[in-house]
Fold this sequence. Notes:
There is one protein chain. This protein has helices at about 45-65, 95-100, 105-125, 175-180, 185-205, 210-220, 225-230, 240-245, 255-265; strands spanning about 5, 5-15, 20-25, 30-40, 75-80, 80-90, 90-95, 130, 140, 145-150, 155, 290-295, 335-340, 345-350. By secondary structure, the protein is α+β, with helices and mostly antiparallel strands. It folds into two domains: about 5-90, Phosphorylase Kinase, domain 1, CATH 3.30.200; about 90-270 and about 275-285, Transferase(Phosphotransferase) domain 1 (Transferase(Phosphotransferase), domain 1, Orthogonal Bundle), CATH 1.10.510.10. A six-stranded antiparallel β-sheet has the order 1-2-3-4-6-5, covered by helices on one side. A three-stranded antiparallel β-sheet has the order 7-9-10.
Amino acid sequence: MDRLGKYEIRAVLGRGAMGTVYEGWDPVIARRVAIKTVRMPDEADSEEHEQLDRFRKEAQAAGRLHHPNIVGVFDYAETGELAYIVMEFAAGRTLKAMLEGGVPPALAEVGPLMDGLLSGLEYSHAHQVIHRDIKPANVIVTDTGALKIADFGIARIGSSTMTQAGTIMGTPAYMSPEQFQGGAIDTRTDIYSAGVVLFQLLTGKRPFEGGMATIMHAVLTSEAPLPSALSARVPPAVDQVVARAMARAPGGALPDSRRVQRGAAARPAHAEPAGRPGRPRGRGRHGGGAVQQDSGPAGSSGCARRAGPRRAEAPVPAARGAGGSRGIAAGSRRRVLGDAGTGRQACRTRA
Length: 351
């Protein structure tokens, strides 16, 4: 095949069970593109029809998002044999490829990477798109150092009911407790997965390993280990950011990406050389830390004391504040400052 619609096919970038990804060329705009294809389903195959529906949904989800940290979608079309999505060509490699071998990036690189990931998620969530499969394989770092979120194949758009309650979807090592339970999800599911990615960037390891049953049991019954307990290079100040993002009980707000960046950049005096995992050391108690918290209902302080860390929720439009989920009005956020070792908290609002 040398052409698909108006697009010239130049090379095969990858093949999978469902289809192929090509490097293509748009001769009208003179632009390099990536073209993701899937086979059109057999008329009687309901599973293949569902896969095609998800493929269309991926185009719809990513197509509504225009952000420098999200792979852009330019076009969608179908032929008699194939359906295809035409996307931005992001020259680079995935975080998965960067992390192969268990050697994490230098601490100075972690903050900017997480800043890009959280910025892309914040934008996606503000446009009612929940990715549901954030993991290193779906995050591209371009040759210029930009981070881009890819593959919205199982994303949820708004209040879509395509995925019924009880359906488990995602990649086990990065799935949130509510995904394993097959329950309702919201933006905090992506924040949990981003917390797992941050853990891996800091330590070179995932917090929970094993088969699906083993990981599910750990996610539903255990807190993740502290990154600083696994690697001496990790500043203890970052532990609380990871703990809040990966808390088993969802609540609170999106961890401030700038806080993550500052914490990752604050290498302790005993840190090991950048890019090399540290030696395990004794686990300590987490102290306080700063996270972002959505402003609560009118008149509430949003500073109720809580026994343990609560996972963060990304900003969503105020209309979603009903029914127990926290909304955010006009971009106003509240920063919660934990008083280390006491559980006391103080709040201040910022625009």
